[in-house]
Amino acid sequence: xxxxxxxxxxxxxxxxxxxxxxxxxxxxxxxxxxxxxxxxxxxxxxxxxxxxxxxxxxxxxxxxxxxxxxxxxxxxxxxxxxxxxxxxxxxxxxxxxxxxxxxxxxxxxxxxxxxxxxxxxxxxxxxxxxxxxxxxxxxxxxxxxxxxxxxxxxxxxxxxxxxxxxxxxxxxxxxxxxxxxxxxxxxxxxxxxxxxxxxxxxxxxxxxxxxxxxxxxxxxxxxxxxxxxxxxxxxxxxxxxxxxxxxxxxxxxxxxxxxxxxxxxxxxxxxxxxxxxxxxxxxxxxxxxxxxxxxxxxxxxxxxxxxxxxxxxxxxxxxxxxxxxxxxxx
Length: 330
Known about the structure:
InterPro entries: Histidine_triad_HIT (IPR001310), HIT-like_sf (IPR036265). The protein contains six helices and ten strands; from the N terminus they run ββαβββαββααβββαα. With about 325 residues, the protein is α+β, with helices and mostly antiparallel strands. It has a domain of about 170 residues: HIT family, subunit A. α2 crosses α5. The longest helix has 22 residues.
């Protein structure tokens, strides 16, 4: 499943439903993450250039360990975009969805490769993808690939223990669910988004592409029109609809018409690419402007807590980042 939130401002989450995680503890194969408090002297030092602990790169892309990881092995993937001192930033700077189609797909396919690498070297079963547009137009678009530590091979749904909801931009994105919206509120948002479609009042296309025409999954029933829904967009291969439990106005779920694995990074490349391109189309559905809030206190999750987020964690020591880099690149 791929989430896209209202819509140009917000990013994407991949693989949001995962098996139940065990108690919070470091996997035995993973070196502990060393953390230290930020005293005034270290705050002043943080303005100095920090070394990048690169774990994967191509001629166009580079992936490196996040110096403030929310979970062990959090990785930042971005294009290599060197510019001269007087060169103006590209219109795509800071936003994944402003990239041209080729660069956009290249970045998402790069994330797929990085996710496979992290799963192999860190011994995790799944990774998630999170992207939030950077407010700094001089920064390249970034994707965060998050290893989901502590999951079993068998898939089991697991949701966060608490809800999250905001009308304003908190400075990060999260996959936590929010309180149930009323049908009337969902219909109002649905109408606002659909008003920008070429045929806002068109009847829904209920074509289902699964081999079993009676597949019992929730998304399959939604595609076939058997469940109450607030559909906002569709094409020949995908359907997008509002979730009734949004953590912000307009939180939208995008699913394929054919049942596929919930592990996005393990989709066949053609299915993965098709889903990525559909996400780019959904992103064009609406835009909103919201005010920002102060960043929250840094949190750290040693194992998957039932949600993913683009929040930064506490600062990691260079020694621990080097150790983890060596483990991944060996």
